[in-house]
Records
---
Amino acid sequence: IDQPQVLSEREVASIERQQTAMSAPKAKVAVLGAGGGIGQPLAMLMKMNPLVSDLSLYDVVGTPGVAADLAHIDTAAKVTCATGPEELSKALYGCHLVIIPAGVPRKPGMTRDDLFNINAGIVQGLCEGISKYCPKAWVAIISNPVNSTVPIAAEVFKKAGTYDAKKLLGVSKLDVCRAKAFWAELAGVIPAKVDVPVVGGHAGVTILPLLSQATPKVDLAKDKAKALMERIQNAGTEVVEAKAGKGSATLSMAYAAAEFGNSCLRAMAGESNITECAYIESNVTDLPFFATKVTLGPDGVQDVGSLGRLNELEQENLEALKAELRGSIQKGIDFVASGK
Ligand code: NAD
Ligand code: LMR
């Protein structure tokens, strides 16, 4: 007699995920900057996502090659490509999720803010397109400096009358990936068993990992916690220096953005309890934008998590990051107001 098969919790969760994927409405996802170091692997990972029905690749150069290459992967997502501003409407029309890794990356010695002069205008132009051609889409911004480019996007959408704060998300997930990877090493467990909230912004001291809230708990002396916090804050620079002039994190960023994009699509499809850390318009602190853990729902951010209890080191860092983050936010707002 056949024994009834008992499924593990993990197997049940996997079947439920597959069922959700199969019954979910399929989405059109655009990657703007699809020819770049992040854009290409991100586009590949989104091509492999069963929630994506249409994958729209946009860049100012190089999209036909990337699209032809990805179109030969035997997954369902249909790949289309568009090149240059005159084809932006085609890229964006009907999109549910737009992910933006367009713009220049850092070289050694630069700060993310040094990218502002070039990337601010790029993000502004792309967001003007979004407000015209897919004003209801979720928008995930990767282009640096994220602390300023997200406020830029918000101002562009406000000007166009299409702003929905719940659907504008700055992608700070790479900070969480790094924090989890480093914490897992320390705790001696696999990263999937780890949770580390990272709040604040996405540049240097504005990146605030809340190690006192990390699980599993590890007892760390204050100097060790400070060193780990600083490693997470400087992890982007660690990659920039290792690449020695050939750009910044691309593969880990593509992974982080693909996971983040997947969370957005699952929430859009009606799955509940989807949480991510994201840099959003917020009233958790006295700053107008701030990254915290959020719960995503079908219409975007549903709940914004509180900061919880901070230890002394984290409290000091929170106070110290405010001036820089406030300045970066205002710089973005002023850029759009100046009409440049
Ligand atoms: P890259 O130079 O390899 O690629 C950028 C791509 O953007 C290029 O293909 C370029 O042609 C394209 N582009 C330029 N102007 C454009 C426009 N107007 N419209 C569409 N596409 C345009 O750079 P990358 O390594 O992919 O990095 C891209 C951005 O992502 C940088 O600003 C970098 O600092 C940022 N970044 C952010 C994070 C994060 O955690 N948020 C992590 C890594 C990198
Ligand atoms: C990162 O954190 O890797 C990115 O913001 C890229 C950079 O310039 O460090």
Note: The chain has eleven helices and eleven strands.
---
Amino acid sequence: KTEELETLLGAQPVVPVLILDDAEVAVPLARALHAGGISTIEITLRTEAAFEAVRRIVEEVEEVAVGVGTVLAPDQLERAERSGARFWVSPGMSPQLLEAARHCVLPGLPGSATPSEAMALVEAGYHHQKFFPAEAAGGAAYLKSLVSPLGEIRFCPTGGINPTNAGDYLALPNVACVGGSWLAPKEAIAAGDWAKIEGLAREAVNLRKA
Ligand code: 3PG
């Protein structure tokens, strides 16, 4: 599971975090992101349309791996498996979710924001973790100070990351990739401006590690 996650997250410096109100846009959006060089995306389970959006991309845009994000409850893991998602992401961790994840075939990226949380996740077998909410919790400087004591953990920081600060995170040895919603602005989705989104994706892909 760890290796699979490593491959999915390592494919690009930025994983787009998508909040979709309408499953109709899922396929053209995924195609636009892929045209810009993105092959792994996260669809958050914050909207009714989320699982339908995942299913459509799984069926119609095979070249893009979809993960489900904002997983808070055990039953969402079962639905994620059935939807064809390749991985799951959570803003944090909870005893119930961790127990359910032991029975889930998908690799997961649970969240941590303190050394104690990060250590508890390592004990549960998670060497890849989402660092959330990245900017508010202390940003790249905070994450940098975990390199020495907790060097074996690979983080995917998310929350408040944009093209200006993404490079600070990507330069750290404990960052696998960053996550962010900026690649798919609501207005661009509403307008069906796929060229704009393709451009944002290309720009993000070029934020190579220093
Ligand atoms: C997440 O769930 O990871 C965040 O909502 C994404 O954060 P951003 O919108 O600040 O990029």
Note: The chain has one domain: 2-205.
---
Amino acid sequence: MLPVVALVGRPNVGKSTLFNYLTRSKDALVADFPGLTRDRKYGQARRGEKPFLLVDTGGIVEEACDETGRKTAEGIDEAAMRQVDLALEEADLVLFLVDAREGLNASDEAIARRLRRIAKPILLVANKIDGINASLATAEFHALALGDPLWLAAAHGTGADKLLGEIEALLPETVEEPEGKAPDGIRIAVVGRPNVGKSTLVNRILGEERVVVFDQPGTTRDSIYIPFERNDKPYTLIDTAGVRRRSRVDEAVEKFSIIKTLQAIDRAHVVIYLIDASEGVTDQDASLLGQVLDAGRALIIGLNKWDGLSADQRQTVRRQMDLRLAFVEFAERHCISALHGSGVGVLFDRVDEIYAAGNRNLSTPLLTKLVLEAQEAHQPPLVQGRRIKLKYAHQGGTNPPTVIIHGNQTESLAESYRRYLVNFLRQKLRLQGTPLRLEFRSST
Ligand code: GDP
Ligand code: GDP
């Protein structure tokens, strides 16, 4: 499981600046597609040696505030507060940011009191030390009794390497499961917002198939892996809905945790994302799907509760999907009823093929030929009188398939041209259901 680091601090201390710094990948690998809004609350840190999930609790709170930006306790909705509490509960480490320029204040002390109650490693970080005498300015934060404050200027990256080193030293080792104990077969995560029908779907899938170790002695009660077989092939469901812990489907046991959902996405080979068709695509759906895209997971979208919709409603949902989910165009959409079972078999039948697409091996001659073909059909623009030139391409990885394209001045390639290349390659390679990543290497 990805370890979790929660970012806390009063408004304006630089949490989102640090969040952006840590989650921005060193080279922009993932194209920004229309309709995709980057999540500013949850992100995977990619700067250091160890990947971890970073949660900006300030971002969660702000999102829930009204337009006037009031951050009163009443203004913060309950769901957001619950996610903040869960973030603290599920965090392996808390980064507590304070403002070295403004100095210690009452809000910092209130936050510190709350943090002292939870038994978690805490790193106190004094931000905005650029251009000031850091040791003088940060001395007073010792009063928080949380140890020596680390010095940071998030806006400039100063102190970030040291901070990353401290974070990594405190994070639990993410050991790969030992051979033989690892969950079998294709790992499938069924994810989506609360009440969209995840546990109904999981139960339906398991109910119809032979469950191998559902209640085997020795498996921990809170294990989230459910191995099963279908047509003599092993699969493992990653359970985010707490199906295992419920005795009946309608029993609401599990708190909906975005962190658990993101960890499941990270562990999965294939994500089945459920949308409640009677509600349509919500903002949270779009942002969770953005996370699936960022993680590079193969994806199938299930439009659930299709049974209860009129023809008009169905038309509306389809149109809304086309508009709002353009950034995950590669994903197949299936209209299903987890409750009645319709469409579930067909959806499941697609898992193998979509997994295979994500793991395809693509030969260097083929990729080079296609990239040159794309370039011929549509030349990259001139940059300061010189034409950007793509020369050859090879595969850099699978799951998701990653193509490395060599050329010159590729760093100047416009976003629109990268998108064109992605679409061109996807079509020619018939890559269904998986994102495709491009990386560029420039010789000049
Ligand atoms: P948040 O409310 O805690 O998320 O804070 P923001 O990240 O939005 O930052 C608040 C303000 O502080 C912004 O104007 C930032 O540009 C500024 N800021 C953030 N980090 C630094 C820093 O390292 N040095 C300086 N001088 N300003 C910073
Ligand atoms: P979860 O929170 O995502 O695990 O959602 P549940 O599986 O607990 O389902 C939430 C509610 O939606 C329950 O009352 C289900 O009976 C209902 N539900 C689930 N799937 C369907 C469906 O395909 N059609 C209809 N009409 N209701 C469904």
Note: Residues 4 and 422 are 32 Å apart (CA to CA).
---
Amino acid sequence: PVLDEILNLHDFEAIAKQVMTEKAWAYYSSAADDEITTRENHAAYHRIWFRPRILIDVTKVDWSTTILGHRSSMPLYITATALGKLGHPDGEINLTKAAAKHGVIQMIPTLASCSFDQIVDAAQPGQVQFLQLYVNKDRNITKRIVQHAEKRGIKGLFITVDAPQLGRREKDMRMKFTAEDPSEVAKSGSDGVDRSQGAARAISSFIDPGLQWSDLDWFKSITKMPLILKGVQRWEDALKAYDLGLAGVVLSNHGGRQLDFARSGIEVLVEVVAKLKEKRGLTFPNEKFQLFVDGGVRRATDVIKAIALGATAVGVGRPFLYAFSSYGVEGVDRALSILHDEFEMNMRLLGANTIKDITPDMVDVSNISAH
Ligand code: FNR
């Protein structure tokens, strides 16, 4: 279909499935084990209902916000997803360009297909980018990556903590990962690369399963970038991150690609907000310690629910991959425009003029219990 006929983010997935190579589809769409968590990620949003306000002048609505102190046209960011060139020859650059046009922030993955510098070079002056970090067993390599990123102007370091070992994505494992794959990571990191078990496992053998809480002081000593843990799944760990003085956490299960039966980020958010208020008197959204959520976000209404419950912003992953795999940069542009239009309409229908008006009383979470 032509892009004008794409009406929502789900549409990109249906088209991508038809036009992508079998291997790329397997890598992007797959999730761990029985894929229950992936299904739950989106389904969890279906248990939250709205309590809109009426008779508010909503002629003007504004859903822009700040994320770690940086302007964003919407309370969402493009999260890190590896191997962009599997889906399109321009890979992650598609995301960089569309992000610039829409004033949203892109999180660059450690395992991007384009090199880190290519992705930074493709950005407009002043365009904000974050970096997702997989921590190498060789800390000198990690230190180099982190300090280079800081020098190149990266504004936040998201350390992935839910992947000491890659989950079993069986759809992906059935595809052999071959040397011709358009990933520079795979070509350069050939040491220890196991090509027999799918793309994910082939590229991830350098990740350090020994990473632990006591390593975080070291990160603080090598960079001034805000540090955020990506992949927190219980309030106890969010509290530890806060007590360590980190800038925030992403409540995420890696799009269901790691531990199957991990809970959805939106559900964990309810628990984290309640417990951090109880234990430390914190209220959210909070400038000093920001909560992010990702997984299964497909509509502006999903984003708005997370904002109402205390998130600063949410991450969106697969929809943008499907968009550029099908249509290149114009696809991502269209996806962001759709979200933009959805925000405008839903803010009006909710009686919310700005993000600050999206408060906990706007949602009914009686179907979700805090632990
Ligand atoms: C990911 N994700 C991910 N996360 C991370 O920290 N490092 C990575 O390299 C990747 N790579 C990756 C590849 C692909 C193909 C997918 C789909 C996801 C996880 C990602 O950042 C995010 O947590 C989820 O994608 C969010 O769920 P949705 O929006 O895809 O449902």
Note: The CA atoms of residues 250 and 292 lie 4 Å apart.
